[in-house]
Hints:
Blueprint: H1 3-20, E1 32-37, E2 40-45, E3 48-52, H2 67-89, E4 96-104, H3 107-111, E5 122-130, H4 135-147, H5 150-156
Antiparallel strand pairs: 1-2, 2-3, 4-5
Helix pairs in contact: 1-2, 2-4, 2-5
Amino acid sequence: xxxxxxxxxxxxxxxxALALKPSLGLGTGKSKARIKSxxxxxxxxxxxxxxxxxxxxVGGNAQGPTPGVYGRAxxxxxxxxxYMMKAATMNIPITTLEVEVQADYDDGALLGTSHVSxxxxxxxxxxxxxxxxxxxxxxxxxxxxxxxxxYLDVFSNPQNCKREVHIISPKLKS
Length: 174
């Protein structure tokens, strides 16, 4: 079975399962980020372990990509994977596919010297796709995939974020 056939078959099974039991689609992802040294942060989710850091220019150790790199990578990879999944279900052949994400920011907001929002000022993504399919079919596939992209939704719409704090103090143990 081809890669495209494998993808299409898996998606069709998933659709059938979710149609029969929608609760199968519900879940909670859980990542833990722990400072290891200075600003160097170890991130773990399941068996995956990776690092984030900041450049030396802002006090980091430059031991890994910044959180911004991971954020842009999350969006770009989510879009690329979603396009391939949708192309497989629509029988659209894809020879190559690339998504480039550009995000404008103002580090002054992070450091408190600018009065703009600390998030991105603007996010742009460019899709480069090689396919023998008709342009209208490709554009329909991209539009449909964008409508179902989890990270495009995260980047495009406000999310409900709740903070919980646990303070451990040696002073309280006396």
